[in-house]
Automatic annotation (TrEMBL):
Acidic residues bias spans: 226-241
Chain segments annotated as transmembrane: 51-70, 82-112, 137-157, 169-186
Recorded topology in the membrane: Multi-pass membrane protein
Keyword field: Membrane, Transmembrane, Transmembrane helix
UniProt-listed Pfam families: Orai-1
Protein name: Uncharacterized protein
Region Disordered: start-end pairs: 220-241
Length: 241
């Protein structure tokens, strides 16, 4: 007597479960899409901040060099050789920093045009194909301009104090300070960071072969997944027991 009613209720329950499952799948797909959009936006913002940092600093150094060219007072008795070297180094500073600034600015415009919603191409592939080589080129130009800027500072004392009676002492101090700064740049900053930054997408924050922290255990996403699987298996065993 109640068999048709029971069968109808079972069918209704199955239909409800199917509907709930479809809605759950749609919600998960929507959340995954939102997550993908947020990840793309974070990647674009990360690269934009890197490009802005190099572009702004390059423009600042190039501006300093241009001020030196405009404001420095050249003594007519200055050695032609020193004057030629000074003009060459200042020009190299302006040129290299200008190239770095322009490359970073144009790359910044390019990545800001990337559509984070449609994502016809993944942003990582877009960066590797269109921007990474230019980013490395801009960074090399920036690294080449920094030593030239320090060389300009070392020469500036001899150019500015040429007619002063105590020229040798004052100019030597300026040159020594510039030389020490350049040595620190080459021995630490440039040596430590250039190779890492030029590594591009293949650069690693941690090298397993590095023994700086030999007793520290580095755990990544795979280790976390294994831990979660082990916890799940233990829970199933406990539930079965």
């Amino acid at each position: 007597m109640f068999a048709p009613l029971t069968a109808g209720m079972n069918v209704a329950d199955m239909a409800w479960e199917v509907k709930c499952r479809e809605e759950d799948m749609k919600q998960r797909a929507l959340e995954n899409e939102r997550r993908a959009i947020d990840d793309a936006r974070r990647s674009v913002d990360e690269k934009a901040q890197q490009l802005k940092a190099i572009s702004h600093l390059s423009a600042l150094i190039a501006g300093f060099a241009m001020v030196v060219i405009v404001e420095v007072q050249i003594d007519p008795s200055l050695s032609p050789v020193l004057l030629t070297i000074f003009g060459l180094t200042v020009s190299i500073v302006v040129g290299t920093m200008l190239i770095a600034m322009l490359n970073c600015t144009l790359m910044l415009v390019a990545i800001l045009r990337y559509n984070t919603v449609l994502r016809e191409v993944p942003f990582g592939d877009f960066w590797r194909m269109r921007c990474e080589e230019d980013f490395k080129y801009a960074l090399r130009c920036f690294n080449a301009g920094v030593p030239m800027f320090m060389a300009t500072l070392g020469e500036l004392g001899w150019v500015t104090y040429n007619s002063h009676p105590n020229r040798d002492v004052a100019a030597s101090i300026v040159t020594c300070v510039a030389g020490i700064t350049l040595l620190l740049w080459w021995s630490h900053t440039e040596r430590k960071w250039t190779d890492f930054l030029l590594g591009g997408s293949n650069a690693k924050l941690y090298d397993p072969g590095d023994s700086v922290f030999p007793n520290v255990e580095i755990r990544g996403a795979r280790d976390t997944e294994k831990d979660l699987e082990e916890v799940g298996e233990e829970g199933e065993e406990g539930g079965g027991g």
